[in-house]
Prior knowledge:
This protein has 6 helices and 8 strands.
Amino acid sequence: MEWEDEAFVLSARAHGEAGAIVELLTCHHGKFAAHVAGGASRRMRPFLQPGAKVIARYRARVSDQLGSASLEPMGEGPSELFDDALALNGLAAAAAVAAGALPEREPHPGAYLAFEALTEALRLPAVWPAVFVRFEAGLLQDLGFGLDLSKCAATGSTDDLIYVSPRTGRAVSRAAGEPYRDRLLPLPPFLLSAQGGLAEGDIRLGLDLTGHFLEAFVFSVMNRPLPPARVWLVERLGEAGRL
């Protein structure tokens, strides 16, 4: 089994004296783990940080074994964010969510493109927290658990959608949801439209929304909590006054 693909590093851990087991989010092959010879070396370490973009050349003798890969870096990767600790937290959280949520060796091009869009947005401090929420919503969509925000689940109306059902992930209008508002999740307007502006508190509402469905539909099924890096990101954003 051999292939070559663009990929983002999701995680890396030392293996043996000089190697590393690297988890990759590839464009066409999904999430793949591979042994990288020399991955523990000082030369390779910068290329194995979460979020680093690489060309991966993978080879395995049989398809179900752990294969080996050589990695060629693309661009500066996470190093361009070294002066922005919060953006690095965002990148680490996205990598941890993708690594935990995606199945092994199953193509998910939508997840790859959502991750790529987030890595580009991380250069823009005023923008990337909202893009992070959209990344998580896109990940849910690609996994088959997408939020349906197109119309009210109760009336079919497309107007004044301000809630989401925590059970179904479908939008609910103000009028239909009013009697049940304590049991519904608030829907921030920026998730309804790319032109939707950000009001105070919208990022927290968005993170609460995607976090609820990631936990309910993805991580709880595997008996896992949300990744610690994701929890820390929310804490750091709060401390920075970005929620």
